[in-house]
Amino acid sequence: MVLVVFLLAYLIRRQLDYQDRLSSDQLWRQWFHFGSKVEAGHEAGIGAGLALAVLPSLAAGLLVAALDSIGLGFAAYPMECVVLVLLMGAPGWAPVLQAYGDAWRRGNMREAWESIQDQLPPQERQAGFAPGAMHQALSRVFLQSIFQRFFLIGFWYVVGGIGLAVLARGLVALKEQWPQAAARSRFTFLCEVVAWLPVRVLSVTFGIAGDLAGWLRELPVGPSQFSNKLDHILMISANGALTGYALDPDRFFEIHPKEWPDFGHRSLNAIRELLNRSMLVWICGLALLVISGLI
């Protein structure tokens, strides 16, 4: 049933994203208000945030365990599907990417920048003054967002059940929405820890779903492959798996200057198609694990 629940939740979530509906960010933001007040000098503390992330995770896990212990485990599946629909999803990206691609096609980089600046972290917003750097910044944030809102949740749901899926999503929400900005860097570190294994699984999936030869050329060798951060792994892996310099704007302009106006739209489409194919690989892999009896 794990495959059925995840597949159904994924399909529902995709339809909601197409309609730009039902974002869970507001729910997390309201939940975190319980920890918005801290004593002076303790703004960097993470204890209250972790408690607010662990509590719903424990509640979901204990509920499933309780239903299973009394022989009603099947009753947990609808609940898990609803929770996964709430946890997953990245509504709001479609209109942003459409406006960005249209502005790029018209050659209006200022308008393209204005359409995406709210999606970027503060330290990356200066990249908007150079088209290539702006596009790579957007691609990095988009890849990370989709990974954290689909692949990360799906991985921990399959590995550890709905409780771990809730915890993983809670840590991402803490990194982005915790009221005390001083603590967010520490939550970012915890997100890197939770994402260490699934992002490397996704990196391999990029090679399977894309250009395997190109992915192998970009694959880091040595100790750095274990210490690279989430966004760096995603960018390197996607760049290798994509053809036509879809993530290398400078090289693309050098080779195809006449096609430069279409680069923004073509690059984003290539990234989305790679992510869609990668999710299909994950679903097929999950199906094989179910058939073999491992799940």
From TrEMBL:
UniProt keywords, alphabetically: Kinase, Membrane, Transferase, Transmembrane, Transmembrane helix
Gene Ontology molecular function: kinase activity
Transmembrane segments: 44-67, 74-94, 146-168, 189-210
InterPro entries, per database record: Beta-lactamase_Reg
PANTHER family per UniProt: PROTEIN AMPE
Protein name: Histidine kinase
